[in-house]
């Protein structure tokens, strides 16, 4: 039987699966359910310095009808319980049993630096991820699409935190943007990992019968997830895996079975996140996807993840 255990930044993890930030991780009961699940790691909902209610509902919709692509659109607007709540959870989490990532998404650079200072002072083994790609706060553009702001933020976080951390990136769609983003990230050795991708921002889903948008905020515009984004996610994982050889990559986007998890790892992901599919299926999805991944590895004769991690072939 295939062995699913692996390592992330020298930490042993039981398997490569975890939740995508935002899914099943906003309140303690959900975090506890993730801790009890068979996921290899877990991450908290992106948080701000103060709690936020987020955008008006409906703000998340799934598309799951037979014959349709499986996917979701959301414009949650960063609803969260506030930094102190997630730090409190992190302080009582059993980090040896399962690595915990904390996702920060401050509304300003100063807010991010304040939260990062507190996290540093709290001396917990929590792994910091800075979200550079929330697409849904009205009036705020994504830092990941403003390379100058991204460079400034990485410089400030590196000098403030002085420990390894990661960033959650939006999807890029142009080779020049992969090159430029990677070049900036490679200036910062403390950026130890890159999570690709956040939802594909500002998509529009429409109900044919009612001729109405599926969600209410921002005139129906929201972040796209699920089957629609798998090829974009794989491209971003592989683009940064090739360009940032000293950093780990966490893959996110379009994973609903062992097949997509295998493709993310083949493209270079060390860990693989479940978003829309976890939202719909709940934490019971982890044992299913793990069994499917192990079955694919068995079929192919791979005994360990290292045997195919990043080994994507191209056509000569
Ligand atoms: O609307 C959200 O809360 C949200 C966030 I912070 C994000 O990073 N990605 C997303 O799709 N939604």
Q: How does this model look, in words?
A:
- With 316 residues, the protein is an alpha/beta fold.
- The chain has one domain: Alpha-Beta Barrel (TIM Barrel).
- It is 34% helix and 20% strand.
- It has helices spanning 28-36, 83-92, 109-122, 147-161, 175-186, 230-243, 258-267, 276-281, 285-300; strands at 6-8, 11-13, 17-19, 42-43, 60-63, 71-74, 100-104, 127-131, 165-169, 191-196, 200-204, 206-207, 212-213, 221-226, 248-252, 271-274.
- The strands form 4 sheets. Strands 3-16-15-10-9-8-7-4 form an 8-stranded parallel β-sheet.
- α3 links the parallel β7 (100-104) and β8.
- Ligand IRO binds at residues 22, 46, 74-78, 105, 131, 133-136, 198-199, 223.
Outline of this structure?
This protein has 316 residues and is an alpha/beta fold. The protein contains 9 helices and 16 strands.
What percentage of the residues does DSSP assign to strands (E)? 15-25%
By secondary-structure content and strand pairing, the structural class works out as alpha/beta
Task: Measure the end-to-end span.
Answer: 33 Å
Which small-molecule ligands are present, each listed once? ligand IRO
CATH topology-level fold name: TIM Barrel
Give the averaged pLDDT, no decimals. 97
CATH class annotation = Alpha Beta
- CATH architectural name: Alpha-Beta Barrel
Q: Which spans of ≥5 residues are poorly predicted at pLDDT below 50?
A: none
Largest sheet: 8 strands, parallel
Order of helices and strands: EEEHEEEHEHEHEHEEEEEHEHEHH
Say which CATH homologous superfamily is assigned: Aldolase class I
């Amino acid at each position: 039987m295939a062995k699913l255990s692996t390592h992330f930044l020298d930490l042993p993890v039981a398997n490569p699966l975890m939740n995508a930030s935002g899914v099943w991780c906003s309140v303690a009961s959900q975090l506890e359910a993730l801790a009890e699940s068979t996921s290899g790691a877990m991450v908290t909902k992106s948080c701000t310095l103060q709690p936020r209610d987020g955008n008006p509902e409906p703000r998340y919709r799934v598309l799951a009808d037979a014959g349709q692509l499986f996917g979701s659109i959301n414009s949650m607007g960063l609803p969260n319980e506030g930094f102190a709540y997630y730090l409190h959870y992190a302080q009582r989490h059993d980090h040896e049993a399962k690595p915990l990532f904390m996702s920060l998404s401050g509304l300003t650079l100063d807010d991010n630096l304040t939260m990062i200072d507190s996290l540093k002072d709290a001396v917990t083994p929590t792994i910091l991820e800075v979200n550079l790609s929330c697409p849904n706060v009205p009036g705020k553009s994504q830092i990941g699409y403003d390379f100058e702001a991204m460079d400034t933020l990485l410089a400030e976080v590196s000098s403030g935190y002085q420990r390894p951390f990661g960033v959650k990136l939006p999807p890029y769609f142009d080779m020049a943007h992969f090159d430029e983003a990677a070049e900036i990230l490679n200036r910062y050795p403390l950026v130890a990992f890159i999570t690709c991708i956040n939802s594909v921002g500002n998509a529009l889903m429409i109900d044919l019968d009612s001729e109405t948008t599926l969600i209410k905020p921002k005139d129906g515009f929201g972040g796209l997830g699920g089957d629609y984004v798998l090829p974009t996610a794989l491209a971003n994982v592989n683009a940064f895996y090739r360009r940032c050889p000293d950093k780990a990559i966490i893959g996110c986007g379009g994973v609903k079975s062992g097949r997509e998890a295998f493709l993310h790892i083949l493209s270079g992901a060390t860990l693989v996140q479940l978003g829309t599919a976890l939202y719909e299926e709940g934490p019971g999805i982890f044992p299913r996807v793990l069994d499917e991944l192990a079955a694919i590895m068995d079929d192919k004769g791979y005994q360990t993840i290292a045997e195919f991690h990043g080994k994507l072939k191209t056509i000569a």
